[in-house]
Amino acid sequence: MAAPWSTLFSAIPWSDVIAHAPTVAKGARKLWQKVGKHHEDATTAPVAPEAAAADPDARFDAIDTRLAELEARQQDSAELLAALAAQNAELVRATEALRRRVLILGAGLGVVAAGLIASFFR
């Protein structure tokens, strides 16, 4: 049986989520700015094929620059994903702890209910 949404949302450690939110938002903002900046650079300054054909060194330099930008963006993406993975792992750990508590409380409730039923029929 599926748990109600209110139970699921109450099980989330919102204080941890809120504590990590600025870090995740900062990383996402930085990544978005780099992607937007790179997109503007690519549209405003295209390399002319004639110039690239005339000077292979300039073409290799442009490729090296582009590769360095892509590596920097990949590093930023990896850092953001690592932050999200850490936050997700914390949520999974908290959810597992709450699941164990619910099982223990359910077992305790069963014992109390059985005791009450037994006391009524004595």
Radius of gyration: 28 Å
**Spans where pLDDT lies below 50 across 5 or more residues:** none
Structural class: mainly alpha
The coarse silhouette is rod-shaped
β content, as a range? under 5%
What is the straight-line distance between the termini? 35 Å
Major β-sheet, in short?
Answer: none
Q: From N to C, what is the helix and strand string?
A: HHHH
Mean pLDDT equals 79
Strand tally, please? 0
Query: So how many helices?
Result: 4
- What's the helical proportion of residues? over 70%
Question: Overview of this structure, please?
Answer:
This protein is mostly helical and 122 residues long. The protein has a domain at 19-93. Helix content is 89%, strand content 0%. It contains four helices and no strands. Helix 2 (14-44) packs antiparallel against helix 4. The protein starts with a helix and ends with a helix. The model has no long low-confidence stretch (mean pLDDT 79).
Quick recap:
This protein is mostly helical and 122 residues long. The protein has helices at 5-11, 14-44, 49-54, 56-120.
Could you list some keywords that capture this structure?
4 helices, rod-shaped, mainly alpha, 122 residues
What's the helix and strand layout?
Elements: H1 5-11, H2 14-44, H3 49-54, H4 56-120
Helix pairs in contact: 2-4
